[in-house]
Amino acid sequence: MKLFSRLYRLVMMWAVHRHAPVYLSMNSFVESIFWPVPVDVMLAPMALAKPDRAWHYAALATVFSVLGAAFGYLLGYAMWEPLVEPFIQAMGYQDKIAVARQWFDDWGIWVIFIASFTPIPYKVFTVTAGLLQMAFLPFILVSLIGRGLRFFLVSGLMVWGGVRMESRLIRYIDLLGWACVAAAVVAYLLLRP
């Protein structure tokens, strides 16, 4: 079944759309607050489709992601009880917030760097940082460094790999896609309560 190769072609069409930078910026902003779609899903194909604009796209993603993080921080800081907590409960994310609190206790500000650079859900930590009233300026600086490293790395890999990497990716995209789905199902079955 060639589902992932069709999706890849569709994403590559979106990546060259004239409004793609606006969509990337919007996705970067909301992904730092609540949106589940990672920025890399848009950034990588955009950088691959237009390598001369890759660094511009990485900068856009970084700036708007950190702006979203600041907004998420402010929501956690000022709107926890009336707005955020009911949303967390409705989504069943109480355990994620509890884990985030524990990680803050264990690692302090480094948890922001880890969450901003890795696939760990950054949004949980932006809101929790506000809830715990973490110092705002260090929060922003560490977020800027972590998000910048991640997005410039993604763009750099796309520029470096270029057409060679794309041809290999297209050849194996369906196999990789189904392998990821299988891994997610196995992880869910092993980790569910």
Automatic annotation (TrEMBL):
InterPro entries from the UniProt entry: DedA_domain (IPR051311), VTT_dom (IPR032816)
CC terms in the record's Gene Ontology section: plasma membrane
Keywords, ordered alphabetically: Membrane, Transmembrane, Transmembrane helix
Domain VTT: residue ranges: 54-157
Residue ranges crossing the lipid bilayer per the database entry: 20-37, 57-80, 107-124, 136-160, 172-191
Pfam family, one: VTT_dom
Entry annotated with the keyword Membrane: yes
Name of the molecule in the record: VTT domain-containing protein
The species this protein was found in: Oceanimonas doudoroffii
